[in-house]
Amino acid sequence: MPKPPLQKEHPLADLRREIDRIDEAMHELLIDRGEIIDRLIAVKKTQESGSAFRPAREADMMRRLVERHHGNLPLDTVEGIWRVIISTFTYVQAPFAVHADLSAGDALMRDSARFHFGFTAPFEPHMGASSVVAAVSASKGDLGLVPAFATAGAGPWWAALEFAAAPKIIARLPFVERVDHPAGMPVFVISRVAADAMVTETEVWSMRVSGWSAASVNTVAGLADVIAVPDRAFDGAALLVSVARGGIGAVSAALVGIGASIRSVALVGSHATRYTVP
User: Fold this and answer.
1) What is the pLDDT of residue 139?
2) Degrees to nearest 5, angle at CA 148 with 143 and 151
């Protein structure tokens, strides 16, 4: 029986033509996406105004991206491409600037801002979270980026978010956490968005507590993520508490149970549950 002919390998020119075909198709799809955004802008002009950010939708999109990804293309690259696409088209809908607190490190914050929001949106550096909050408060739809951990001399910057008309914490970056993330510094995003666009899996609360101590830290460690700074007014601490939706009552009860006193509590934002890739 004659042997079947060996399958002829694609020459290099054929492979390059295939890559060109895929590149052109990707470009056409981006153009199609832009045309849909034009129609979306026309609809929004009659239905809503303000920021174009949709934190709940973005968090869901990034999770689905990770779940369907496979192959040898690094996840960092795929996430970076999608972040640029999403943020650029958001900017097209309603231009915004990114105000960033550089007090925890210029390079780290710039990496986070550019990875998640690209180079289209203007980047405005600040030295201190309070300055970022003030800039976002004075804008219509700008973003503020502040470290999601305590920094020296920052003070309780989140107290400025307690008022009804103030912007709120709308996200925690990166959306997808993993070891060696190229923009892995934890960052809160502050802005004004429509209430129905917020993701509320994790609530963020501003609390003032008297009687705060090392024991208090251990008590709430298993219940919530907490940033604490001294509060001389109450001989205690000002807290920024990130807890699963509906969980602030358990945090308050735990603190009272060890003798602390809750002076005030105010909701200052929310974000998606932290999504970690093993």
Assistant:
1) 92
2) 110
Measured between its terminal Cα atoms, the distance across the chain in Å is: 52
What gap in Å lies between CA 139 and CA 95, rounded to an integer?
11
Place of tokens 């507590």: 209
The one-letter amino acid at 86? I
Reported as a single tens digit per residue, the pLDDT across 131-153 is 999 999 999 889 999 999 988 88
SS3 130: helix
- What is the rounded distance in angstroms from the CA atom of residue 173 to the CA atom of residue 139? 21
Is the peptide bond between 174 and the residue preceding it cis, with omega within 30 degrees of 0?
yes
| Cβ atoms within 10 Å, residue 93 | 16
* Amino acid occupying residue 168: K
Please state, in angstroms and rounded to a whole number, the distance separating the CA atoms of residues 192 and 269.
10
Q: Is the dihedral of CA 152, 155, 156, 158 positive or negative?
A: negative
What are the pLDDT digits (tens) for 77-123? 999 999 999 999 999 888 999 999 999 999 999 999 999 999 999 99
Separation CA 151–CA 48 (nearest Å): 37
Give the domains, in start order, of the chain with CATH numbers. 50-194 (no CATH), 203-271 (3.30.70)
- Chain-centroid distance, C-alpha 185: 11
- Indicate if the pLDDT at residue 207 is higher than 80: yes
Of the candidates 166, 254, 134, the one whose C-alpha atom is nearest the C-alpha of residue 241 is 254
Find, among 156, 159, 144, the residue nearest to 191 by Cα.
144
pLDDT per position as a tens digit, 153-196: 888 999 999 999 999 999 999 999 999 999 999 999 999 988 88
Q: What is the rounded CA–CA span in Å between residue 171 and residue 191?
A: 9
